[in-house]
């Protein structure tokens, strides 16, 4: 099976020359290892999503509703009016190919349908056939539709959509290079919305969405378990630092509501980042009397609705503001997460605002006004921490991170949907001396996806993930070989879940850290004991047992 | 594969023959000289407006610019004001650079993979598409502006100046216009890229080759009239002025080649609104480029925003109240 594919075997397959023949006549081959399991009916039912049923992508019959073609046609029509992006992007691509070799999934698989332009053409061909004058006329002439590049909507086309729209991590790298700013991620979003009209989602998205909706977070952690988890970290941290850092939950009247992706609470190594936040908040409480609360209701920053439809995204996002209002906090602080921040930056205020019951964010410790979040009232934790560091409000012992030789992975969404580039770097450099950038074409706005974004972080599609993550891993390997980099820092919970597996596969000597883990590790808590281990309970540099 | 460009190539050739034979053989000057050009211009204008209105009618629900640099953040962090603008002025500069200098295309890189002990994926700067595209568009622009001399009497000074500059390299007589040569060369380059670059060839449709062949045909006929067959310039000017002033006349002594040239231009004009060539207008309207990244500073309104069903805190607490109380979590309603 797919997970037995060795790195060498995978590399042998990399070839960027498409086979000859016409892509329109090359039928899709749905291959295990490259796709995620189908959405379970229960999960769709929670959201009253259409066509909830048991189905299998490998089956011939996908149990579609009878009028499925009409549903798709109307779905497209509706979206063409609602989204100018969609309409323009359907019309103006000149197929120049500038985006072709920019997608990590193409670079890792060599599958020509993973060229962004072709991914979009999958949908565009149907659009041309059904919605353009030329296409409509030519489709009546025998062989004519092919002239204008149109094709009718068939089950095979639908399967191809499903396969390739769930082989796009909506990372937007292609968009950076397109002369018209055509954003294939936007087309994928529309494609997935259309597929959702027929109940064609994957389970790794549908179930988290349903959990978020019900319990507040994508893992379905219930309130008491959420608290247990953080209590457990509190115990560990007490052992490490000698200080009780117990957090507060659902506290009315706190200064700030803190929301982070639940991945940080439940999965290693995100949990260490979570501990980093806790250490920081304790420090701020003791030194500056800043009151931060967590919420068990709004206990998820990540928004898997984003990978489903705009409507689902809005339904899940509503909790952040609702909870901030109920608790009466001043503003909201957001943790390290990729797509959560794309949603917060580009959608939240429009969908669920205005947040006029909150105050314009000011850092109560430094007096800095966060001008850039005046309207959403939501600040990114690296913006917040960078400001504290700049004003010398935090004391660090950098030597605790001296064994970490670090490079930084820009997560796609904050990088290309927000422009959060310097803040995390500033934080890292404040607590570590060994920092090296990966090559220029692989960082900042040109950063490469971890290969598991947009809900593709499942176990069954591991071959796709390892192939898609190849460009990222390749750049990490480069700095590993050149500068002995052993730490890949990032500000995204999906990255913290996906990159360890990726590194283990391609660059096993590199470990994945969140930025706030490094911060928490270096921060000198008032009254702390002499630390001998880091947050992972591994010996600090100079504290190793010399048993050799 | 081949049929993808053989069909459009044959098509353009037939168009040429149609006009040439129509004029030389059937004497249909009035049709190819008057009816077709007016119809084409009408189709172009109407179609163009229709398409742009169609785009403009679609909503822009969210502000989703692609950011290519540092956001506006803390005062001491240097923002990239052009690639990640938060003001209208920044957006303006970004758009000007995009439209006039193809800035995004300038970034283009080429990826290659070496299967050896290093297994490195390398990215090299790929400038040829940018050069080719820029040369093509600017040469085309100059050619069009130069042709204004046929439609304006007296010829404006700026058109004369442009012609002077364009023809500054003087090799024999008549002076060579650089723009025409560059246009032809750039189009041939873009065509060659489409045919020989495997990736580009794979994504290309017949509809991508057609305008290239058409433009090659137009450039080739134009060049040959100027340098080789020496069309009767005065006759042409009489004719075009007639069209421009809505008093069309068919002059003597202007041959089939000219009508074929004119016919292909007309086809191109009429083809623009129904094709990808509308990118010339679309580029202005692309929401990922023409919006400021001030999402968190300023509220953006979605015209079709509608209320959705959400799972409220009250429902949540009802569901988990006992467990919450047991865990010592605060609740709104105790019982
Ligand atoms: S770069 Fe843009 S215009 Fe060129 S092929 Fe890709 S999407 Fe189309
Ligand atoms: S958005 Fe990312 S994953 Fe999707 S096509 Fe573009 S580069 Fe590939």
UniProtKB/TrEMBL annotation, chain A:
One of its GO terms (molecular function) is metal ion binding. InterPro entries: 4Fe4S_Fe-S-bd (IPR017896), 4Fe4S_Fe_S_CS (IPR017900), Cys_rich_dom (IPR004017), Helical_ferredxn (IPR009051). Residues 84-113 form the 4Fe-4S ferredoxin-type domain. SUPFAM superfamilies: alpha-helical ferredoxin (SSF46548). Pfam families: CCG, Fer4_8. The keyword Magnesium does not apply. Signal peptide: none annotated. Keywords: 4Fe-4S, Electron transport, Iron, Iron-sulfur, Metal-binding, Transport. It comes from the Bacteria. This is HmeD. The lineage of its organism: Bacteria, Pseudomonadati, Thermodesulfobacteriota, Desulfobacteria, Desulfobacterales. The gene is hmeD.
Automatic annotation (TrEMBL), chain B:
Its main location: membrane. Signal peptide: none annotated. The chain crosses the membrane at residues 31-53, 127-148, 168-191, 203-229, 249-272. GO terms for cellular component: plasma membrane. Keywords: Cell membrane, Membrane, Oxidoreductase, Transmembrane, Transmembrane helix. It is found in: Cell membrane. GO terms for molecular function: oxidoreductase activity. It is a multi-pass membrane protein. SUPFAM superfamilies: Respiratory nitrate reductase 1 gamma chain. Residues 128-281 form the NarG-like domain. This is HmeC. It comes from Desulforapulum autotrophicum (strain ATCC 43914 / DSM 3382 / VKM B-1955 / HRM2).
């Amino acid at each position: 099976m797919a997970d037995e594919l060795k790195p060498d075997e995978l590399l042998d397959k990399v070839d960027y020359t498409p086979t000859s023949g016409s892509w329109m006549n090359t039928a899709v081959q749905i291959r295990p290892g490259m796709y995620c399991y189908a959405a379970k009916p229960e999960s769709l039912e929670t959201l009253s999503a259409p066509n909830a049923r048991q189905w299998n992508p490998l089956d011939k019959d996908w149990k579609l509703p009878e009028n499925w073609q009409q549903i798709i046609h109307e779905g497209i029509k509706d979206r063409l009016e609602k989204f100018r992006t969609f309409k323009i992007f359907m019309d103006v691509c000149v197929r120049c190919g500038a985006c072709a070799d920019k997608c990590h999934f193409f670079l890792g698989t060599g599958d020509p349908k993973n060229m962004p332009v072709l991914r979009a053409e999958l949908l565009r061909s149907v659009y041309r056939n059904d919605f353009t004058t030329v296409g409509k006329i030519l489709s009546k002439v025998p062989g004519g539709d092919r002239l204008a590049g149109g094709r009718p909507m068939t089950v095979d086309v639908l399967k191809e959509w499903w396969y390739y729209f769930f082989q796009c991590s909506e990372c937007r790298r292609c968009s950076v290079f397109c002369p018209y700013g055509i954003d294939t991620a936007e087309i994928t979003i529309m494609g997935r919305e259309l597929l959702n009209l027929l109940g064609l989602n994957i389970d790794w998205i549908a179930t988290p969405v349903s959990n978020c909706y019900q319990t507040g977070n994508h893992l379905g952690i219930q309130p008491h378990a959420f608290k247990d988890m953080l209590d457990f970290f509190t115990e560990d941290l007490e052992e490490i630092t000698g200080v009780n850092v117990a957090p507060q939950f659902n506290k009315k009247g706190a200064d700030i509501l803190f929301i982070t992706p639940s991945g940080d609470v439940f999965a290693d190594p995100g949990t260490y980042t979570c501990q980093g936040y806790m250490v920081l908040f304790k420090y701020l409480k003791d030194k500056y009397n800043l009151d931060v609360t967590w919420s068990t209701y709004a206990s998820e920053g990540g928004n898997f609705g984003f990978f489903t439809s705009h409507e689902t995204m809005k339904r899940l996002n509503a909790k952040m503001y609702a909870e901030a209002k109920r608790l009466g906090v001043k503003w909201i602080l957001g943790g390290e997460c990729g797509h959560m921040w794309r949603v917060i930056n580009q959608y939240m205020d429009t969908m669920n605002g205005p947040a006029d019951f909150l105050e314009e964010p000011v850092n109560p410790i430094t007096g800095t006004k966060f001008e850039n979040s005046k309207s959403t009232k939501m600040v990114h934790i690296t913006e917040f921490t960078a400001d504290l560091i700049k004003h010398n409000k935090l004391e660090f012992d950098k030597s605790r991170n001296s064994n970490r030789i670090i490079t930084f992975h820009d997560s796609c969404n904050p990088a290309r949907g927000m422009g959060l580039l310097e803040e995390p770097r500033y934080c890292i450099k404040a607590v570590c001396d060994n920092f090296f950038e990966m090559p220029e074409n692989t960082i900042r706005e040109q950063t490469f996806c971890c290969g598991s974004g947009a809900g593709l972080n499942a176990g069954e599609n591991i071959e796709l993930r390892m192939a898609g993550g190849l460009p990222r891993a390749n750049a990490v390997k480069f700095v590993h070989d050149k500068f002995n980099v052993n730490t890949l820092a990032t500000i995204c919970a999906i990255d913290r879940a996906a990159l360890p597996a990726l590194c283990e596969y391609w660059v096993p000597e590199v470990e994945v850290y969140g930025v706030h883990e490094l911060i928490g590790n270096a921060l000198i808590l008032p009254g702390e004991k002499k630390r001998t281990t880091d947050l992972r309970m591994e010996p600090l540099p100079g504290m190793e047992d010399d048993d050799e | 594969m081949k049929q993808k460009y053989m069909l459009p190539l044959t098509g353009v050739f037939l168009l040429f023959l149609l006009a040439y034979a129509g004029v030389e053989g059937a004497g249909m000057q009035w049709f190819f000289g008057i009816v077709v050009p007016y119809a084409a211009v009408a189709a172009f204008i109407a179609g163009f407006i229709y398409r742009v209105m169609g785009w403009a009618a679609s909503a822009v629900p969210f502000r989703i610019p692609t950011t290519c640099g540092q956001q506006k953040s803390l005062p001491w962090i240097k923002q990239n004001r052009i690639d990640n603008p938060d003001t209208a002025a920044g957006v303006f500069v970004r758009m000007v650079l995009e439209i006039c200098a193809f800035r995004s295309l300038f970034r283009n890189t080429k990826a290659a993979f070496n299967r050896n002990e290093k297994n490195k994926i390398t990215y090299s700067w790929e400038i040829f598409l940018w050069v080719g595209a820029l040369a093509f568009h600017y040469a085309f622009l100059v050619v069009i502006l130069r042709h204004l001399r046929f439609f304006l009497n007296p010829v404006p000074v700026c058109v004369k100046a442009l012609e002077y500059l364009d023809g500054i390299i003087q090799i024999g007589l008549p002076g060579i216009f650089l723009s025409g040569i560059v246009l032809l060369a750039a189009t041939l380059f873009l065509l060659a890229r489409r045919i020989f670059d495997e990736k580009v060839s794979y994504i290309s449709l017949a509809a991508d080759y057609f305008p290239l062949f058409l433009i090659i045909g137009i450039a080739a006929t134009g060049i040959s009239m100027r340098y080789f067959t020496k069309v009767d310039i005065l006759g042409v000017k009489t004719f075009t002025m007639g069209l421009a002033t809505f008093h069309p006349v068919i002059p003597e002594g202007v041959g089939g080649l000219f009508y074929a040239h004119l016919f292909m231009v007309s086809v191109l004009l009429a083809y623009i609104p129904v094709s990808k060539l509308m990118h010339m207008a679309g580029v202005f309207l692309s929401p990922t480029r023409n919006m400021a990244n001030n999402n968190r500073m300023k509220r953006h309104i979605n015209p079709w925003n509608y209320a959705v069903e959400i799972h409220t805190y009250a429902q949540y607490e009802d569901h988990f109240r006992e467990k919450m109380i047991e865990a010592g979590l605060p609740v709104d309603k105790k019982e």
